[in-house]
Structure formats: structure tokens, C-alpha cells
What does this fold into?
Amino acid sequence: MAKTIAVKEKKERLYRSLIRGSSLRVALQLIGGFAFFAIVMVIDLIAHSVKSYQGMVLDIVRLGLHFGGVYLWSRAFGPFFPRLSELARGSGKPETNTVPIRSMQIFVIALVVAVATSLLPGLFILNVQENPYGPKTANVVLSFNLLSITWAFCASILLVGFSKLVYLWQRTREVRKRLYTWLAILASYVIFRYMIDEAIIESDTITDIIAYSLVALVFFGTLFLWFRIPWIPHITKRSKQRIIFYSGLAGALSISGALVFEGEQVSSIFHWYSPFLQECVLMLFIALAAYFGLIFFNALFTLSSTELVERRAAEVESLTKLTRFSSDVLTSELLLDIPKLTSEIATLAKEATKADAAWIELSTPRSEKDAGIPFRSYIGIDQPLAYLLSEQPLTSRDRHLQGLILSAEVSEKLKPVVASTVYISDGAVPAHATGWWSVIGMPLINKGYARGAIFVAKQHEFGFDNEDVVVLTAFTDVASLAVDTARLLSDSIEKQKFDGELRAARAMQQSLLPAVVPEIPGFEVSAISIPAYEVGGDYYDFSNLYDGAPIALIGDVSGKGISASIFMAETKGIAQGLAPLVRSGKELLIGVNDTLMRNLQRDATHRSFVTLAAVSFHRDLVKYTRAGHTPLLHFSNDGQYRYFQPKGMGIGFVRKEIFNNVLEEQEFSLEKGDVIVMFSDGITEVRDANNVELGYQRFAEIVRASRFEPDVQKMTDRILRDVLLYAGAMAFSDDATFVIVRRL
It folds into this structure.
């Protein structure tokens, strides 16, 4: 106990010393900045006394001292702004919304003060001789220096605030390169303008064109170099509205500052005092106006899509809740409480689609005495209205829906059914429930038939879109597994038939695999998965990316048996939900890892992770990304082969910063007759009677021998046959899965 107290006191002393050290450093930087400007004041008084106030060398020396003072003050003011560089490495959603707004608020206050100081020359009696000797009295020199210190003080606050904003959610090294490029453009203009003002270069039409071109280059250079504002898409609609207000105000203040510093009153002072400083401050205001204009229009033009983005985020969040819910069902009291389980699933389905109501309908297991009697759970709707929407002939504008019974259609076709124009006028429901409705029915499929359905409804026409169907499809996959697992384990406890449970679990796993391999234009596709036990952790799947490009996935969950199957279902649900929202396989794997790491429990009882690989098809171009999975085998039409093995770590294994930095994507072209094979390690790790693994080279030779089969299905059968011949009497020790794609 005493040792713990001593350690705590030591930490407190260290913290206090750091605070004192930070305060001392800020104080020294402030004093150092004033010291630089004091040196400038002494130089100006001496120069005035010897009648040599102007001169390029003197201006350059004074400018260097100005910059030194501004630099020290900028370092001192840094702690007063939010530490945005830390946010760039990743933080939670609240910081994403609050930090930019706090920074904009501080920046607007600094801009108000900076523009207000432009009115200070009116408070001084500045007597400037119209001759080469500059200010007439020492009092005027002191007045110039006081104005300079005030403006430089404000400029340093603006500079540090600007630097904090541009570093937000961006890599420091990349921003630093752009910042140096922008400063080089700014310096070029300042030097050129000074040479014109001091008659080093004769002023004519050409020089004026060059000067205005450099001003335009500073303006558009600001837009080009800082066009990427990655934090705007991540803030909420309300926060974006506040950003629009503050950025518009900041842009207007920046334009006002530029006009004032370009005006005759301030310009006449800088003409005698420091042309360099005038141009630097003027260009700073122009750059700020451009940058805040960029933020303003970026936030304004994306405001309409913010609600959709927030909705998609809510859908993914609901999906992850459901996957975590399904992973915990085996150890929870819901295992024997199907009504409560289905109520939770219906609630999540309602939240994911922002629906007004949701209900789930399950038929009782066929082994029970009262088989065929439906069981229902309702959320946000009463039974009579749900009965009218799902069990009675529909009244609809669409001819193909007129008279259709939604639950029967879902059970018969085993596909989602969307009814966007359903009219309810029956007197059996309350008056407020009558009118137009939109309804989606999703089948819960198991063993090739519908074991029930999930319905969601909104009380207006055309309330759902294709994205809602995608999310609900992922929901039903996981919901079906959760419900049937609960039923299966409940029956197992009652009947003590563990073998029957495993067979049903295998059927559930197989139901999650694609029933039919989809057609990919220009390619032949075949796939097979063989679990080592009754259920396993391998899976394959197909989907489409945001731009419609087909993508094939293959995964291998750590471990075997029913726990691996559950984790496989979680991964499949997340991948299916995210695929239509991303543009590449790399983005998909990053999203799956991020979702699992944020939402799954990482305790001693849940240590599963998954290796996952994705191949996306873009006409003749193929892109391959792997998160710890086996390499991709590529056979060219001349019989040569190679393995593609881009870098990547397993999903749900490391923090997202490490995962994202390591993950890479390789792309290559496929010629006619080329073959690619995605496979799990259960294939290459199969052993013969002498305990020798098959390995990558032998597997490649087996694939080579099957290349001339007329179609990929026969290739699949021959490869599987040859692998089993190699194993002989030895069975697969791990789940074995492979997907074959041949270019037509």
C-alpha cells in the first residue's frame, strides 16, 4: 500500500513539474518575441537619427527579426488551441465534432481582434515626410513599432490557428510539404512586390501582370494545396451548419482585413516602415479568405448528403450491435428465451432502417406438436396493423403488388420483397395508422426454406431504398443464425442430442454461403468449402462495391467448430453491409477490422480473429488485398504461375492504426485463359500418410494439371479429387475452401 502511494506521489510531482515547465516555456517564448521587436525598435530609432531609415539590407534584417518574433509567439500560442495533431491519429466521434468547432470559434475571435487593430493608425498622429528620409520624429518611429508589434501579435495567433486547422486529420509529413510549397509561393510574391515598390524593377504593364498573377497563384495555390479537408465528412449535420456559419464569418473578416491593409491609411504607413511586412500580412489575409471559402463551400455542398452519411453510420452501428449480440447469445439467458431474442432483433432492424415499425414472424420447429403456428414479435406496431400489412392482400398503386400477400411472397421466392405503395383503409386499425405505407419483407432462410421473416415499415410511400435492402439482407443472415442457434441449443438441452445440434449448425453455416455462385461478366467462377468438423470457420462470398465492381471474398476464422462459425457469420454480415459503401477491397478490409475492433469484446473468452482476402474485378484489371490470408495463385495462359502476397495482418488482431499502415493492395491484369485461385490454408496444409504437407508448390502443380478442363466447375472437382488422393486416408485437419476464377 505504501509503495502504491509513493508511486502516485511521484507521478503527481512529475505532472506538476511538467506544468511548470510548460508555463515557463510559454513565458520565455513571449518574452523572446518582445525582445525581437525591441531590437527592431532600437534599430529604427538609430536609423532615424542618422537619416537612413530606408534600404533593402535594413528591410531584410528587420523582416528577419519580425519573423523571429512571430515564430516565438506562434509557439507560445500553440497550447491555447486544441491539439489537433493528436486527433489526426484517430479519436472518437465526439472529438471529431467538437474540436473543429472550438478551433473555428477561437480563430474567429482572433480575426475580429486582428481586423480591429487595423483601425489603430487613426489613434496616432503620424507625421511622415514626403521625402526619402521617412518619418519626421522619433515619436512617429515609436508609433510605427507599436503598430507593428500589435499586428504581429495578432498575425502570430492567426498563423498558429491556421496551422492547427490544416493539420486536422491529415498526415503531418504531407501537410508540411504543402505548407513549405505555399510559403515559397508567398515569399516569391513578397520579394517581387518589394523590388517593384523600391524601383529595383521598373513598374510597367508586364510587371503588373506578373504581380497580379502571383497574387492569383497565392489564392489558387491555397485552394489547391489545402483542398483536402478530411474532417468535414465526419461531422454531424448540426456541427456542419455551425462550421458553415463560422467559416463564412471568418472568410468575410479575412477579406475585410485584406481590404484594410491594402487601403491608403495602412499602406502609407507600411510604405515607410516595412513593405515586406505589409505584403506578408496582406497575403496572409488573402490565403485565409481562400481557405475559409474552401471550408464554407465544401461544408455547404456536402450538407445535403450528411443526413445520408449519418444514416449509413447508424446502419453499420446497428449491424455491429447485432453481430455482437449474436456472438453473446450462446452464453446469455436469451438462449432459452426466443421471444426476447426476436424482440431484440426486430428493434435493431427498426433502428438500422430508421423505420416506424418492425416485426418478426417465426414458424415453430417442425418437430413440435403445434408445428406451423406462427410466432410474432412487434416493435412500434400493433398486431392488427401488422396482420394487414403482411398477411392480407395488399392495396397498392403497383400492379404487380395489387392483391399480393407479402408474407407468402417472401416465403415462396426466398428473396426480399419491397412494397413501396401500400394503402391501409380498414376500420380495424386506428385512424392515425391509415394511409400510405412502405414495407420490406426479408426471409429468414434455413435448410432451403423460409423459417420466418423480418418486416420493417414506414408510414409514407417510397420510404426505403436499395441500401436498406442491403443492410437488412446482412441482418437476416445473422438473425437467422442467432435464432436458429438459440433454438438448436434449446432443443439440445431438452433432448440431449448433441449430434443433431452439430448437423443443424452445419446446415446454418452452409446457408450463409452463397447458394449460387454469381455470374461475373467476362469470367468463369466456381467455389467450394469443406469444414473439418461439422461446422467450421472458413467462408467465401461475393458482393459489389460502391461503383458496381464485383468483389470476391474468402476468409478463415481462427479456431474450429461452432464458435468459429458464429464469428464467421459476424464477419460476413459486416462485410456485406460495408461492401456497397466502399470503393476498393482495401477500404472494405479496413472497415471490417475497424468495426470488429470497436465493437467486439476482447476478453479471455473471445480471442478469435479472422484472415480475410478480397479480389475485385475491374474489366481486365484485378486488385488483390489480403489481411493475413494465404497468397493468391495466378496461372497465366502459357502455364506459368506466381503467388501474389501483399502485406496485411489478420482482422480483429491489432489496433487499426497498425492494421491500416501495414495493409496494401496489389493489382495486375488478366489475359484470356488466365486463372486465379483463392484458397484457405486447410488446402495447402493437408498431409499425406508420411505426414508431409501438400505445400504451395504441389498445390500449384495440381492446379496446372486441371487447367485444360472445359469449365471451372470441372477444374474444382479435379483439384479437390487430386488433393484428396494426396491425403489418402488422412482427413482434412482444417477447414478447406477455395475459389477459382478463369478469364474468358
Q: What stands out?
A: The CA atoms of residues 545 and 580 lie 5 Å apart. The chain has three domains: 20-84+92-304, 330-493, 513-743. The first strand starts at residue 357 and ends at 363. The two ends are 74 Å apart (CA to CA).
